[in-house]
Design a protein that fits this description.
Blueprint: E1 9-13, H1 18-23, H2 25-34, E2 39-44, E3 60-63, H3 69-83, E4 87-90, H4 95-103, E5 108-112, E6 122-124, H5 146-156, H6 172-184, E7 193-197, H7 210-223, E8 228-231, H8 238-247, E9 252-254, H9 262-271, E10 274-278, H10 281-288, E11 293-296, E12 312-315, H11 334-337, H12 341-355
Parallel strand pairs: 1-2, 1-4, 2-3, 4-5, 5-6, 7-8, 7-10, 8-9, 10-11, 11-12
Helix pairs in contact: 2-5, 3-4, 6-9, 7-8, 7-12
Length: 369
Amino acid sequence: MKKGEEVHKIYVRAPNWLGDVIMATPAFARIRAHWIQAEIVCGIKKGHRGIMSGSKSFDSYLDLPSAKGWRGLLAEAKLLRQGKFDLAFLFPNSPRTALAALMGGVPQRIGYLQGRRLLMTHGLMAKPPKRRDKKRWGPRREPFPMIDYWFGLCDLLEMPRVGTKPILRLSAQEESQGARRLEEAGVDLARAFVVLSPGAAFGPSKLWPSLHWARLAEQLADEFPNLQLVLTPGPGEEGMAEEVRSLTSARIFIVRDPVLSLQELKAVLARTALMVTTDSGPRHVAVAFDTPHVVLMGPTHPGYTNRNLEKATILRHELDCGPCHLKVCPLGHECMVDLKPGEVFEAAREILDEGKGRGRENGNGGKDP
């Protein structure tokens, strides 16, 4: 399939996880650059649309059906049939997404082929994982940075090259709204602050113990008394944030009621001095805005996100049982429990010490006064 072929309307099925959506943005940009005159529609979870605000890659969006099973499959296929697409670029690897495109009458379907070769018209095979002997869990394919993984499909179609850094946009209105939410929570915008992001939609195996977050907050407050600590829970994580605050003597501001929208989260993370986070979607927002961040990584393989680490400090312990990629740990959750607050504090202190005197430390989002 070459650039000159007649393709007028394209359906891009976005990944299912927020972090993957963000990591896919360079590939989205390559698709737009390749088919500059085409109408390109992104199929995305409704809750993830806010992260794409201001994007130049798409002309419009389709909110994916929330129904599961055959009901959801038929609903997605109906949307595609109504859209009369010439081509579908499928980021998820599931047979279901390919089947929806086929049933939706999309004649050309691009994506990885594992488990769905007969449903695709163009694609690549991913390398199988190199499993250790007798290992019960682990990645389903050879760990490979997701940005490069999707770039493989773009290279297959000879799309123009772009950089690998995630592309997120932030409007002046969104900046103002994010600042307002911080002020409503009690944060002084004239002073620097650190964001603590304890949640993870993936499952409990990615979570760091609440008591560890509480001890980290105390160490940061003792070492940096002028630094404000801000908790930014996601939907359904408000109780977790309150638990952390109840366990610590440090003063912590919680931005909730409602929790930050994705547009507001972009604005908040763009101006923070440092973010400490699990291996979750907000981590990749920090990457897009060059925000220094410490990532607490347990059950997932670092190979999938091993790009754009210039502002990242990755903390993880190598264990015989991991990386397992299980949502719930069947053992003792040692990969996260044994990652102690002192170790995280030292990584955070090193970043904050290096950042003294810079814009973010002065509370102005890294911009000149």
